[in-house]
Amino acid sequence: MTRVLGRSIDPIIREQCPHILCLEDDVTSIIRLDAVEDGRPLGPRIPFVAESEGVPVAHGDLMARSWMGDETGRLVDVRWEPGHSEAARLVVEAAIAAARPGDVLNAATNAEIHPDPSERVAVFESGGFTLWQEKEGFRWADEGQDLPVPQRITARPLSEVGAGRFAAALAACSADTLDRIDRDAITAMTPSAWAQAFLDASQDSTWLLAEEAEGTAVGLVSVGEFDPGVGTITYIAVLPGQRGRGYVDELLKLANRTARELGFRAMLSDTDVLNTPMQLAFHRNGHSAQATAWHKWMHQRAV
């Protein structure tokens, strides 16, 4: 355990983060606890606690993996009591100092989860994090309405198509993606490696390959569980050569019907705010941004 109290800041932290300041009256201490391995999907974590006059006012973790569970970065998380955002800033700075040189750190903010998202964004940006991606949430509800049947495609599950062909289709679909985080991961891993990793991480989802009548693949969609009774579109994409022909609407019709078949009463999905075509397609097919507070900001910084 390492304690950083008042102005007696650990020399390593001071060297890497010279702008760390104690709070007024030197009453805030940052405590780095021993690493914890508790089976979380993001791997072992280094916990931090900020205390004010001996009372914990902020907590944080430096995770071993990124928010997606891969090794392309490390997630920094922080929680704090109302009125103690400055203590949260110190926790973030201590987490940065604990990272290895060359590490890429990422941080997540969600308007549905965090009570003051603008304050949380400010905490991370004060620590040198920059906006990586912003995503808008969409909610679809199954209220017993008639669900249109896709007329131009048929669907086959991954088990019938085969893992090899499905991974190749996913890699091809990822070309020129408008999702900024996916694009960065694909660049770092290669499309084929990314596609296989994504499939491996989404084995519990129902993956469907959409084909025209003569068997030509046009796109794919995956529906999985988000919460009990609530599904999510894990992935949806049209193959590059088939874009601009309305197949995204066919895929969303397929997703809606698949969600009902799987027993989901609703779906919560999101897309990059820069992906205007996908946002419009969601709206056309009964997915509403106004029906959910879900809105995410992803930040990152290098050490």
**What integer value in Å does the Rg equal?**
22 Å
Protein structure class: alpha+beta
Mean pLDDT: 90
Q: Provide the succession of SSEs.
A: EHEEEEHEHEEHHHHEEEHEHE
- The portion of residues forming beta strands comes to 25-35%
Main sheet record: 13 strands, mixed
Estimate percent helicity.
25-40%
**CATH homologous superfamily annotation of the largest domain:** Gcn5-related N-acetyltransferase (GNAT)
Low-confidence stretches: 1-26
- CATH topology descriptor of the largest domain: Aminopeptidase
Strand arrangement in the largest pleated sheet:
1-2-3-4-5-6-13-7-12-11-10-9-8
Secondary structure tally, helices? 9
Number of strands: 13
Number of domains: 2
**Cα end-to-end separation:** 22 Å
What would you say the CATH architecture of the largest domain is? 3-Layer(aba) Sandwich
Overall morphology = elongated
Q: What is the class of the largest domain in the CATH system?
A: Alpha Beta
If you had to describe this structure to a student in words, what would you say it looks like?
It is a single chain. The protein has 303 residues and is an alpha+beta fold. The protein folds into two domains: 127 residues, 3-Layer(aba) Sandwich (Aminopeptidase); 156 residues, Aminopeptidase (3-Layer(aba) Sandwich). 30% of the residues lie in helices and 32% in strands. The protein is built from nine helices and 13 strands. Strands 1-2-3-4-5-6-13-7-12-11-10-9-8 form a 13-stranded mixed sheet, with helices on both faces. The chain is elongated and about 70 Å long. The two termini are 22 Å apart. The N terminus is likely disordered.
